[in-house]
Amino acid sequence: MLPYLLSLKLDRDGMINAITVGFTLSIIVLLIIFGKFNLISLETLTFSIVGTIPVAVGIYLGGKLRHTVSEERFKLAVLLLLIIIGANLILNA
Fold first, then answer.
1. How far is CA 56 from the centre of its chain?
2. Per the count of CB atoms within 10 A, which of 4, 27, 34, 74 is most buried?
3. Could you tell me the sign of the dihedral formed by the alpha carbons of 83, 88, 89, 93, in that order?
4. How far apart are CA 53 and CA 46, in angstroms?
């Protein structure tokens, strides 16, 4: 999803908003499917809800940091992150 969004040449706020909407919709669909087929337990759901606390803190801190970084550096950081993730996937394959 990130390479596609980078190719659209969105500004950083537009890119973050698109990523947020995409992941939110994906999670909602997964929860509905898991619930329909009884693939999620109350314990797993509880751990997932508790796991959103560090995510919320990260989103807050990332929002603060995002506005201190220039547009070019932000896109460079996203590309470097994609390269690191890709290299990690190749090394662990």
1. 12
2. 74
3. positive
4. 12
Q: Which amino acid is residue 82, in one-letter code?
A: L
- Record the tokens describing residue 61, joined without a space: 């801190």
- Cα(19)–Cα(3) distance, integer angstroms: 11
d(CA 51, CA 45): 10
Sign of CA dihedral 21, 49, 78, 13: positive
What is the rounded (10 degree) CA torsion for 11, 14, 18, 20?
Answer: 110
Record the tokens describing residue 79, joined without a space.
Answer: 């590309």
pLDDT of residue 88: 96
pLDDT tens for each residue of 37-89? 988 888 988 888 888 899 889 888 988 888 888 888 988 988 899 999 999 99
CA-CA distance, 66 to 70, in Å (whole number)?
Answer: 8
